[in-house]
Amino acid sequence: MFRITSVNVNGLRSAFRKGFDFWLEQNRPDVVCLQELKAHEADLAPELIKPNGYQGHFHCAEKKGYSGVGLYTRQAPQDILAGMGADKFDREGRVIRANWPDLSVISVYLPSGSSGDIRQDVKMRCLDSFETVLAGCMVEHRNTGREFIICGDFNIAHHEIDIKNWKGNLKNSGFLPEERAWLTHIFNDIGWVDVFRQLDPRPDQFTWWSNRGQAWAKNVGWRIDYQIATPGIAKRATQSHIYKDERFSDHAPLTVDYDLT
């Protein structure tokens, strides 16, 4: 069993202060995909770079206290690749990839467009750039047999069952028709599999809740965190879990187990 957890930590140091390190020790995922580190590696304490049994790999934003992605791995990868080949977004620390002999795991943090039209335009350009990455990975998969698992905060809820108040958000970033159509294109045309949805078709399975009002208590959430995979390894996913017993950030850890035997 190969366990992968993806979580937007909304500040890695903050998540550790809230007990994320103890959760890691108890659940022992093989790979943890981290988003929104909000820190430079030089500012991280050693126990955040190498928590018990893990090695940290990070791609941080140039801007302090902003964005950034990372991976915790128990087994050392062959190599680490940072960025997606788009300079503007690579300066924001959006993508990091770890390679093993037949498997690559990617952590991605796609932008939010909720602050206004300018950021929404940036978000759509980032989606275009990341689509190039997704298409390239799928070509590599078909040519070499390499499997890919891509985890992260996409900042898009795909279907009505993926958001509590879908009618009230039809014109809001994160549930816009063009964003949802982009996800549909990724799944239906390029060939990626939404692993969580393959395993769990139930509504109201959310990974993010606003800090405003009683969103968490009332489960008024969005499913915007994903594990997507190439078809071969997607078929080997056996179970998924959204951890909500504790809160390390405004996102919940999303875990999927894959049978690699």
Task: Describe the fold and architecture.
- This protein is an alpha+beta fold.
- It has one domain (2-258): Deoxyribonuclease I, Chain A, CATH 3.60.10.
- It is 28% helix and 26% strand.
- The protein has eight helices and 14 strands.
- The protein has helices spanning 12-17, 20-27, 46-49, 87-90, 117-144, 177-190, 195-199, 231-234, and strands at residues 2-8, 31-35, 55-59, 69-73, 79-82, 95-99, 103-109, 147-153, 193-194, 208-209, 221-222, 225-229, 237-242, 254-258.
- A six-stranded mixed sheet has the order 3-4-2-1-14-13.
- Helix 5 (117-144) links the parallel strand 7 (103-109) and strand 8.
- Helix 5 runs parallel beside helix 6.
- The longest helix has 28 residues, at 117-144.
- The relative contact order is 0.16.
Poorly predicted runs are none
Distance between the termini: 7 Å
* CATH H-tier superfamily: Endonuclease/exonuclease/phosphatase
Assign an overall shape.
globular
Number of domains: 1
Provide a short characterization of the protein structure.
The protein is an alpha+beta fold and 261 residues long. It has helices at 12-17, 20-27, 46-49, 87-90, 117-144, 177-190, 195-199, 231-234; strands at residues 2-8, 31-35, 55-59, 69-73, 79-82, 95-99, 103-109, 147-153, 193-194, 208-209, 221-222, 225-229, 237-242, 254-258.
